[in-house]
Amino acid sequence: MDADTIDWRRFLTRWSAEWADARRDEVDPSPEDAVAQRERWLGYAPADGADIAALEERLGCELPPSYRAFLQVSNGWRHAGGFVWKLAGTEDVHWHEDVHHLGETFDASWGDEDNPPEVRAQVGLWARALQLHVESDATYLLLDPADVGPDGEWAVREWAGWHAAEPCRYPSFAAYMVAMHQQFHHLAAGSRGQRTIDFVNDTTREQDAVVVRARTLALRGDYEEAARLLTDAAKYGRPHADELLHQIARLGGVFGVRRPQPLPCDSAFLSDLLPLAAAELRDSGRGADGRLFAHPEFFPDTARAAADILREMEAGTWRYAPGGAFGEAVDEAREKARWGDTDTAWRVLRAALPCWESLGPDHIAPLGLLADPVLAMVLTPERRLELLATPRGGEQGHMPSPTGDLDPGGLSWLVRPDGLGHGRRSGFRLVLVEGVAPAELPELIGSSTVLAPPQRTWDIHHPPGLRQPSQRDDRALLSVGRAAPGWSFGVDVELHPFVADRLISPAPAASTRGGHAIVVWYEPRPGAEVFHLSVARAGDLLYAFTVRAGVVAEVTGALPAELVPHALGFTNPGEQAQRAAAARALDVVAGRHGLTLPRLALTQGRLHSFESVSWSRPPGPGDFCWTAASD
Hints:
Oligomer: single chain
Number of helices: 23
Helix content: 25-40%
Shape: elongated
Number of strands: 17
C-alpha cells in the first residue's frame, strides 16, 4: 500500500476484513470488538463536512490532507496496530495537554546545542502537538504542526513509555496508518518459526509473491531491488523476508537490518547460519556459545550436529563444506588462502559462484564463507558486494565487473606507514626461502617441526595463559606462506630490540636445501632505526649488512652494487630517510628474485605459524638481556 496514493475506502475495508478473520476464534471479545467482527469494519461512520469544519474551527487550523481524507471515510478507528486501541475522530481529537510533563524531560535532551537540527526541531513537541490517541497501551500518538512537508502533511510522532527509544516519526498520517497495518500483519502472522498457518488473505498472498520475486532478483544479482522489496515484506512479517534480508545485510548490501537468531527451521542452519553466529561470538571474545542449539530436548533433530559444529568452531577446526562443484572450489580457495594467496583464492571462488546451489527458499548466498576461519578474510567488503551481484543458484543475470587484486606487489610496502597494519612504526623480521614449501620451514629453522593451525597475528603472539619468550632465547613466532612461485616466507611482527653483536641470521640454515634464503630485520624506532639484510645460498652466507640510525654497523661479503647501503641512502640521517632507504632495499630484493608478500593475509587473515630457532647467541658476561618482565 502506497501512503502517497492511498485509497482510504479500499485500504480500511481490507484491513477490517483481515482483522475480523484473524480474531474469529477470539473468546469473549469486548462488545465493541464483537460488533467490529460481525460487521467486518474497524471504523465508524464517515465524518461529514460540517464535522470537519467544526473541528478545524475548534483547533484554529486546517487539518493535514491525509488525516482529513481518512475522517471522510471513517470518523475514528479501532486497533491501529497492536498498541493504539482507539484513534480519535472529530469529537476526540485535541491539542495535547502534556499532563505527565514529558516535555520537560524531552526538551532538555533535544535542545542540547550539540544535537543535529532535526533533533533540536522536536523541542516543544509535547506542548504544540495534536493528540490522536484515545485509548492505548501507554502509547502517545501526536500530529506535529511544526513538522510539515511540501505536500502539507504533518509528521506523526509515536512514543511508548515502555519502549526505551526516541519517538518514531512518520511523514504523514497516511504513512502511519500503512505502518500500523503492517504491524497488525506482523503480529497476526506469529513469531518467526511459529507462523500462524491459517492467516491467509489478499495482503499475505501479495507479500508472499513479493518475497518470491525478491529472492529471484537476489539470485540474479539485483540485490538492491531485492532488499527494497524484502524490507517492505518483512514489515508484514512474511516468512523468509527477514532471513533473506539478513543475508543481503551480512554481505554489505543493506544496512541497519536486524539480525534474526538462526533457528533449526532455517534451511542453511547447520551449514551457514549457526557457524556464522558462533564465529561472530568467538571473535568477539565471548566464545562460540550455543548450548541451547545443542540441547536435545529443544532441538532433537539437529542437536547432535549443532554440538559438533559449536565444538569445532570453538577449537578453530570448523570448515565450510557446501559440496558439489562450488564445494570443490571452496576447498581449492582455502588451500590458496591458508598460505596467503588471497587474491587467487577469491578468483577461484568468483569463478565458481554461478555453480553455488541454494538449500531452500530462505537461502540466497554462501554465508558459510564468512564463518570459515581461513576464507572469511578473503571476502573483503568490495568482494562481498561482488558476490551479491553475481548470478547464482541456477539464475541468470549480468555479471558484475570483477574487483581487482588487493595485495600490493613487491616488498617495500612493509616499511611504509601502517604497512602491516600494526601502527605507523611497526617493525618486523622476515625470512624468505627458495625451493622450500611453507610447511617445510620448521624443518630448517624451527624449534619444532610442527605448524600451528591458521591463526590471526594477535592470537599467534598472545596465546592465553602463556608468556612471550624473552630475548635470552629470542625465538621468533613466524607466520608462514608463499612469497612467489617456489618461494616461502616467515614473518614476525612483534620484535625484541635488535642486538647486532649477538645476531645469528637464520639465512644459512634456511638455505641448506640449495636455494637462496633472505633475512630482513627492520626496526623503525626514531633515532635508533635498524635495517639488517643477509642473503645465503646452499648453506653459505653470501653477503649481509646492518645499518643503525644511519650508520653502517657491519658489512659481510661482496654486496651487489644496487644493495650498497650508501647507494640506497642509508647514510642519510632521519627517520624518513631511513624508511625510504629500507623501501629501496626491499624493492631491489624483490626485483632480483620476483618476490612479494600477501598484505591482506598478514594484516587480517589467519596463517599457519611456528616458533623458530633463536636469532641470537646466548648473552655473555656483561651483556644486557631483555626479559619478558622487562618487556
